[in-house]
């Protein structure tokens, strides 16, 4: 074992530890890892940059634009609502929701699908007196199921496809993965409407928890006549840095100011709305010229009117807010919105809002201006789950063009008239020429953090291969599974990929396993397609934790779930997918 192999393995292990401990955003960790390999001379610049020109990565970028254009179509919402309504029982409604969601995820990015349908499904559940916790986790799982059906269903499939093309292989066909994934999805859906439905909790959502406990964290104070505070700014009046309370809104003569800037000049009879620890209300009572309204019946709905609205946002893995307190992130000035409350692990955090350290999966209740949704709907910091009242698309004609373009792209790739990359290029060109998508809109749709993870992971994978580290791991792998044959090797590849997916990212897991499994296939003298299909399914089939896959994180807070709920339902589902995948892969590509 030479120095280069030891160095690369040490760097990769360090990267995995950083990803598991979430010391920074995944894209930053992988970029730094690639930079270390480049600066150390292990990777020449041409290899370090290969990921940024990889066909799979570029196809993912183009598909973000296509998916963004199609997402504007209101027909998707109508399809799911109609499917839910035709169910004669909750379980039948669950089946009729999961099938179309899986179908959409087979051709569109599953993250925006879950973001789009979470408020739709939650509202339907509320209208039919059903706990949304019975439907939101199946919504996430259905999106994951569908993502494994096609080449374009998830970025992971395209990354593996891009690697295969670079190795001179033919890559995946459009529906090659469906040989395994559709049977697995059928078993998965049947599990969710039988055993899974019983295991799903009957619990309040974050929205209900915020509403029911509003009296515990909302308080109100009124500026008295002749108050010494009149004419002073919020900052000079000492209302900005209270020990346990956080000023979220001022109501003055019926006009609302939210969030409240530090320079706001206080007026007579202003109503000041605070959130935070009710036990610290004595802070307000000790301020001269301020009357504290004890026993107020203030409700969340009282905070919003024509100019201000309440918005729920789930903090993403890529968020710049992670490990910062609300105050440290300067949330109010950065996003022009005030944090009213924070929900985590099925309960509201009972603390001063400004001192709460934000974590992935936290659900933030925000008080913001009406244009907040428009400005931050494509932010990488959080997923906005509040329903948007205005139509999703202004021009219905553009909606049909987007849907037609998607179908055309799929047909061109499926019948191998054009390679997937060229079909995606053509689709984006059509969308630009018809002005269905503008260049500015395209930038909003592209998730650059995902592309950086993919591009950097590819460079790291190349380092594993060129230094011989992947071959060394493969040798040990073959020795470990020698007594179990090829079936045992496929089984362990699935387990390892699934394990990495649950603790790091699906794309990074796939890229790390690709060169290792290629060497294993060569040593066992079998078709490497068996391992590539196994990796593609295992990297996406992440059900056991809320942190393993973005869609699981999105429904975590809104569904009122606990970490244990994912383990209880996800582990049996993971095992089910493992058995189905390994069995079919073995008989189709090995036996």
UniProtKB/TrEMBL annotation:
Entries under SUPFAM superfamilies matching the protein: TrkA C-terminal domain-like
Membrane topology classification: Multi-pass membrane protein
PROSITE patterns in the record: NA_SULFATE, RCK_C
Molecular function in Gene Ontology: monoatomic cation transmembrane transporter activity
GO biological process per UniProt: potassium ion transport
Domain annotation RCK C-terminal: ranges: 205-290, 298-382
Location of the protein in the cell: Membrane
Entry annotated with the keyword Transmembrane helix: yes
Major site of localization recorded for this protein: membrane
TM regions (residue ranges): 6-23, 28-46, 101-121, 141-165, 177-197, 400-433, 445-464, 484-517, 529-549, 569-589
Identification of the protein by name: Potassium transporter TrkA
Native species: Halalkalibacter okhensis
